[in-house]
Amino acid sequence: MKQLAINGGTPVTTRPFPSWPVWDEKEKQNLLRVLDAGQWGTIGNESKAFARRFADYIGTTRAIPVNNGTQALELMLRGVGIGRGDEVIVPSYTSAASVSAVAYIGAMPVFADVEPETGNLDAESVRTCITERTKAVLAVHVAGRPCDMDALRVVAEEHHLLLLEDCAHAQGSSWKGVLCGALGHASAFSFQTGKVLTGGEGGMILTSDDEQYVRSWRYHHSGRAPAGVDRNSLGGQVLMGGNGRMAEWQAAVLNAQMDRLEEQRLLRNANQQKVTERIRHLPGVIVAPEDERITSLSGFRYTFRYIGGRDAFVEALRAEGIPCGKGCVPVHRMGFLNDPAFEKMTGRRFEPNIVLPNTERLSQEAVWIPGEVFLADDEAIECVAEAIRKVAEAMQG
Question: pLDDT digits over 128-160, tens only?
Fold first, then answer.
């Protein structure tokens, strides 16, 4: 058996993997077009074009481009009427933004457990979290894998709750042929630097509900109504809106990035499947189960579980030349929930005595490899699989 690189052996590879983001003359030309047009601000031709294009791609009728993904979540929640005194059921195995956005608007995040195989919300755990204050379930498609939207929809409909989507990882993922972002009442996307569709920063709110669209629009545009809406039909009232508008520079880059999205997604998926076939039977390695209801994946992250010392496994895999990380840190253990600001926002203290066994277990077993690794050539993908094999067999030997 070959000696591990972390113990002085030869690494499987020393070649660099593809960097991210990918860009070329398209982005340059789009940015120059904005520069020359002199309309550098917001709600210009670039952002309008990107909003229409992205809504058409996902399959919704309405889209609001905003300045970042956290704002997209917050404005989506405001748009459906959620606020102080309400509760929103969220996973803890997610980005802190999924939870902090709920608190920002005065609502209380309530943590449900996740499925250990996928990291996504477990519908039965959601059911146990519902109270008379619950207004919505926020389905986070972790690492780009769609949640079990059938099961979550049943629970939401039984209790007359909104089913909302956090699609920060899921540009291009689909459930039963419907893209994530068109599966709930409304959805929020992030286009931050690490996402599979990126403008450095940026976000999007999608819905096919006209009332939701108008309210979220007003909140993102200083209380002003969108074009074509009769102000008198809203009683002349201007909402207390802030500024969440997307800059034309962001939209210019995103319009160019859209041209590559599907080609990159297909390449990531094909290469990730090659690795899965190579590692699925390795000792200590557990790959995510196949689900025929998942009809496409974004490939944002390649994830699997390692049983028997995940932290040491990750360090050894890095030493073999493979970029990787440890997945999500459970949000319910993060310090910001105990900050006095949290209580001021929500009107309630966070109760830390939450029991989420699947979340805790997954946070100790998950291994994540960045999606851009899987834009590499066949030789590099072979190195990924070989490195995982080498480390798993050495650590289990």
Answer: 999 999 999 999 999 999 999 999 999 999 999
| Range name among 39-48, 295-304, 367-376, 382-391 with the lowest pLDDT average | 39-48
pTM: 0.96
- In sequence order, the 6+-apart residues with CB closer than 8 A to the CB of 131 are 87, 110
Is 205 domain-assigned?
yes
* Contact indicator for 301, 324 with CB cutoff of 8 Å: no
Q: Is the pLDDT of residue 327 over 80?
A: yes
Quote the number of domains for the chain: 2
Alpha helices by DSSP H, the chain: 25-37, 45-58, 69-79, 96-104, 123-128, 149-158, 210-220, 248-279, 310-319, 340-346, 357-365, 378-396
CA distances 208 to 87, 100, 357, Å, are 23, 25, 36
Residue 219: per-residue pLDDT: 92
Cis status of the peptide bond prior to 21, with omega within 30 of 0 = yes
How far is 91 from 133, CA to CA, in rounded Å? 17
Q: Which two tokens stand for residue 223?
A: 């209380």
Residue 366: which domain range?
5-15+260-396
Could you tell me which residues are beta bridge partners of residue 66? 203, 245
Helical ranges in 302-377 per DSSP H: 310-319, 340-346, 357-365
Contact between 206 and 182 (Cβ < 8 Å): yes
pLDDT of residue 233: 58
Instruction: State the CATH number of the domain containing residue 348.
Output: 3.90.1150.10
Residue found by looking up tokens 């002199």 in the block: 38
Domain C-terminal end among 239, 256, 273? 256
